[in-house]
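Holo prediction — pyridoxal-5'-phosphate.
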Amino acid sequence: MERIFQTDSAFAKEMDRKDPLKNVRDRFYVQPGEIYMDGNSLGLASKDAEKALLNMLDIWKKEGIKLWDALFHYAGKLGEMSAPLINAYPDEIVITGSTTTNIHQCISTLYKPTKDRYKILVDDLNFPTDRYAIDSQVRLRGYDPSEAVKVVKSSDGRLIDESAVIEAMTEDVAIILLPTVLYRSSQVLDMKRVTEAAHQRGILIGWDLCHAIGAVPMDFKDVDPDFAVWCTYKYLSAGPGSIAGLYMNRKHFKETPGLAGWWGNKDDTQFELKHEFEHQHDASGWQIGSPSFLAMAPLEGTLTIFNEIGMDKIREKSLSITAYLMYLIDEKLAKYGYTVGNPREDSKRGGHVCLEHEEAYRICKALKKNNIIPDFREPNVIRLAPIALYNTYEEVHTLVATLEDIAINKTYEEFSNERTLVV
Ligand SMILES: Cc1ncc(COP(=O)(O)O)c(C=O)c1O
């Protein structure tokens, strides 16, 4: 889509004035004097999330053990509230565990290796926890990951070629796990094309939505994947370590969970406390232990915001504000060694811009000194996420002016290149 931008700050102010989402920013705790560009890593707290959390605390204070009556299906209720974000059936989603434990849960349920079909297909750019989980799952079945985990390699370290993924879907592949949006380069994979190709070859497929959920609308009724997992602390702003999402396609509801626990038991017999597990035949049947209400409640607050606005409007602003950032990078920063590392087409990029520079690490430190919060990823990536719900065009303008100043005056030179735990 063609968008016309200008480099002056008056243009940014005008874009903000016309922004249909401009009032949503007030619902978030944006810190005065700080420009937060890291909502793709840890989303900002909102008043809605705070209210939901305090409400949960209040319920605990007043109700004690009686709270279970009202909240018995809370994980499913949050699943239902999440369904519009990916256009799934509400009973296919549960809020439970972490992304990593949910990968373990889904793989241990659906991975049924046989002598001829025993490999798990992955890519080499996904976030490492996915790979650790997959390697340990094949090990648990007695295989050596170097043999049973088939890795599609990126040709440039940035992007994954869907055709290469499809070519790697050989007859020995049992199941696939891929990211929908790549955490570093922001590339969006064509879920529909890849999922269809997998199914045509008798292969199951699941997606890690961590960098897609809340940024990119998805249509699971159309894509029809077998499973999916996601965290809720990035674009969904549900808080550090907030409880994750698990999607299980209805066609697998009868499968016994690989990791069973009493919260996956049928609702009506759970408190009979029998030693025979009776599986609940919807996504809530993939819960393991007691749901963590205090860590889940903020998600209820932010999902209210997402459902009020709808993913289409969120994506529209996200695409516009990231396009504006790329435009300013081209106009103002390209001459100082900054390059855009993400795909440029709307359909191929997620919610963050991948800005590359050989001094990326020290530039991130210099940005922080200027009260701008970016995110560094090895080896040379500054991830910048102007979030549709709370960032402004004016902030993007200031960000680029600061990046320009840092490059011109080489202010990054005052920082060491030695890596510390958190940049
Ligand atoms: C693609 C992806 N998967 C998983 C995770 C993290 O997993 P968990 O939520 O279990 O910590 C991240 C964290 O940034 C991620 O980017």
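READOUT: The longest strand covers residues 173-179.
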